[in-house]
Amino acid sequence: MSLDPFKVFMDLQLGLPRNGPGSDASTARAYDLAPRPEGKDGVEVLVLGCGAGAEVMTLLDFPETRVTAVDMMKPFIQELEQRADAKGNVAGRLRTVCEDFEHLSVPKGVFDLIWCEAAIYALGFGEALTLWQPFLKPGGAIVVSEAVWLTQTPSLNAVDFWDRMYPEMKTIGETTALAEQVGFVVESVFTLTKEEWWQEYYTPLRIRIQKRLADLLGQGIEALAVIRDLEEEMELYETCGDEYGYAFFILTPSKGKA
């Protein structure tokens, strides 16, 4: 009997330190770079596509933050809530919402920061910025990490893979131009290091696959396809990781759009 590919994906992802490239340090760096309100009212943060919430935990380390975390997958939300309970010092500062970030039910115009790490590709960079901007307060900012080309001449292997997985991927310059085209100013940009792909994501994921492989081998071709795609992704990064990466973009609406 074949296993649902979604269940395979969740089995491999739940319990990992992160559900995509990143680190506590890069999240904290982006937060420090983002414009934030001064005063005693705190910082309202809307985290979209939060997964199991590694970035949420880092943002909650800043005592002024109040976080609304959104993901459409209930098992991720449940794991985030468990992490928050274990952390023990976030009472009243975390709200979780299980819904699609393309169809948000949260109120508009109330968030100082909108945050999305390694998930904006699901909507498309420009489309997501346009869709999410109305949820910002005046003077607010959007912080995202986005997959980008780091070279103008990527190898054929890298192009073939990303043409299948994310054909809209652009260079940092092209992504900056797209942000400006849809009405944003790019305040800061920085790229993740290779260690931030491996330490908390690829290495634990590869260990998880190895531990679960014997069980998954008997679950049908769909399960094997999920594993094959993940292994292909990790092997490509081993050989072509200098050619692409994730970049954080800190963006504010241009004056005419704010």
Q: Kindly provide the radius of gyration, computed on alpha-carbon positions and rounded to a whole number of angstroms.
A: 18 Å
* Residue share in β-strands: 15-25%
Task: Could you tell me the CATH topology label.
Answer: Rossmann fold
| General shape | globular
Overall pLDDT metric: 93
Full CATH superfamily name: Vaccinia Virus protein VP39
CATH class: Alpha Beta
The number of domains is: 1
Separation of termini? 53 Å
CATH-scheme architecture: 3-Layer(aba) Sandwich
Task: Give a structural overview.
This protein has 258 residues and is an alpha/beta fold. The chain has a single domain (5-253), classed as Vaccinia Virus protein VP39 (Rossmann fold). The chain has 9 helices and 8 strands. The protein has helices spanning 5-13, 24-33, 54-60, 74-87, 125-132, 156-165, 172-181, 195-217, 221-240; strands spanning 43-48, 65-71, 94-98, 111-117, 136-149, 170-171, 184-191, 244-253. Strands 1, 2, 3, 4, 5, 6, 7 and 8 form an 8-stranded mixed beta sheet that branches. The longest helix has 23 residues, at 195-217. The radius of gyration is 18 Å and the shape is globular.
What topology does this entry show?
Elements: H1 5-13, H2 24-33, E1 43-48, H3 54-60, E2 65-71, H4 74-87, E3 94-98, E4 111-117, H5 125-132, E5 136-149, H6 156-165, E6 170-171, H7 172-181, E7 184-191, H8 195-217, H9 221-240, E8 244-253
Parallel strand pairs: 1-2, 1-4, 2-3, 4-5, 5-6
Antiparallel strand pairs: 5-8, 7-8
Helix pairs in contact: 2-3, 8-9
